[in-house]
Amino acid sequence: MNENTRPRADGDGKSNGTAHSTAIDGKRSHEIQQDAPVKDHHISQPNGHTSPSSISAAQAKAYSHKYKHAFAIHREAHVSCLTRDYSTPVSFQGFRGLAHLVLATSILRLMIENFKKYGFRVSLAANGPSRSDTVYGTILYLTVPCHLFVAYGIEVIAARYAREAVGRVKKSEGEERDRQLDVERRALRDLWWRIAIAHAVNATCNLVVSSVVVYWYIENPGIGFIHTLHATIVWLKTISYAFTNRDLRHAFLSPPSPHPTLPPLYASLPYPSNITLPNLCYFWWAPTLIYQPLYPRTPSIRWTFILKRLAEATLAIALIYLTCAQYAVPLLDNSLPEISHLNLLNITERVLKLSTISLICWLAGFYALFQSLLNALAELMTFDDRDFYGDWWNCSDVRSYWTSWNKPVAHFMKRHIYAPLVGRGVPPPAAQILTFLFSAALHELLVGVPTHSILGLAFMGMVVQIPLIFLTDLFSRRGKGKGGEWGWRETVGNWVFWASFCLVGQPIAALGYYFAWQAKYGRPGEIERPDLGELFGGGQKS
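Predicted structure:
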């Protein structure tokens, strides 16, 4: 090795870090001697680490421009973007786009497969209601609201008594006034029982008569469901009208209190001034099940808003009809023999197939009712409180779902069932279970009566959710992490919620009620009843 090419050492034996060139080209050697200290100072430090900040940006740019194969790539520590320690959140928008594309492709494939197998099955002429269904349905539509006006008549009588009682109390003075007030309140309690019995008979007749007519005289399950739902809504409104006016009447006859016992909203229309026919008619059409003397109101009606919501509802209902006629009915028909022979593997496969169809119908029906129709009705009635639902699709526990997906019913249950039970000393968990059982009975009524099959599937489907509610409460933390992001608990709870409703609950209920309806009305001589002996290996049927 030439002496001129050997590094020069200092007195301590260390290299001075300056590289000398070989004596090939003096000019080239001079350039390297000028650049090398910058290069070595930038890349190689005494501790063996790089120091990117030790040179200026201009020097680094000039160096990288001159030595393109030698500029430093690995300058500092980094972690992979999918690692937990990655500093900035990673967006998965691309995977969402891929999921949407895969979903659209899968649905398109199923549509093509269905069309090749069944053709186009939608026909308005073949699926219209019969004359009998139309006649009885019209009678129910006109007579069911009459029970609200009967409740109004009962409250008119009660309000007249309340006015007379207050008049008698005002005529008294001193101790006589207190004694008279006590007498009137005792008389009111006796009167309340008679009023309560009258309201109970009126509301019960509404629900019983409509259910009997639908069960025995309306064959089409869709028509029957609409009229059963209408009767149930009027029944709940009648109950709320009676209970609310009962409390208002009690407050009207109570001594004045320094602390307000009624909401300030009611001050401009106190009892019994609210017992009027226009007030009742507004409550009849208002998109709520809760009676109040007054509601938040909008100053005007936006007709374009109503037309948009009605157009949305029309498209959603058309989607439901197309999905049921083209996809659900063939699948349900093909499932009937499997249910008759209790072929569990094939039934499971049908349930999974039906889950996608039921999910589409469920989401379209939810949007049509709660977003489109209720908002259109609220705009028409200038009803300004439009909190009809919450973001139930993000629920990480079943309890949150039942309190957010249908807020009109949830408000009714809380105000007229749960709160009175707790107020009478029932423990809150027991009151929640009783309220849930009442809701389960209503679900069975809404499904079993129109299908002419009181199987108890809808009722039991909700009953089995009671332990599921307490189970998913373990996965739901009331306060989520920073920014409201989910942890694994919320994710698992959301999976359980979706699986219980869309993969198991709704498809199984649809199969059960469709089988029962077909066995009774559709194909009574073709469908065999399931033999549980086959399920448990009891041999073949003779």
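Summary: The mean pLDDT is 81.
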